[in-house]
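ARCHIVE CARD
Drawer: 12
Card no.: 0347
Subject: one protein chain, sequence and derived structure
Cross-reference: see card 0346
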Amino acid sequence: MKKKLLSVLLIVLVLALGMQTEVYAAENSEMYTGISSITSTMGIYDSVLDFSVDVETRGSEYADAVSIDAELRTVDGRFIKGWSEDLEESLSDIYTFQKRRAVSESGTYFLHFTVYCYKDGVLLDEVTKDSKTATYVR
């Protein structure tokens, strides 16, 4: 009887540890299919906004095209300018969107953007983000 009880407890313990490992692996799985990371920058230098978005893909076997819809906005809701572009691969597996724009009005600016990642014409990822803000004072 003791051997049977010990066997049952051992089986339950092994199953419980196995399930914990699977849950941990699921929590640490990648968030996107084709995209590895997205980083954005926003700064003002001599009354010129300088901003960029870098999209790193998981490699050409996962993604072969990246596009972006981007809007330059102020935190008080003003729309400044919009772009819709197919991005070029600037480095191995990194696609870059980079712009500069002169500003003359005081305000706090940010970039609102959606990145689209494709493989063989099929949309894999659609990710919407906001950049950090940059403030210009006249």
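Annotation on reverse: The CA atoms of residues 7 and 68 lie 58 Å apart. The mean pLDDT is 83.
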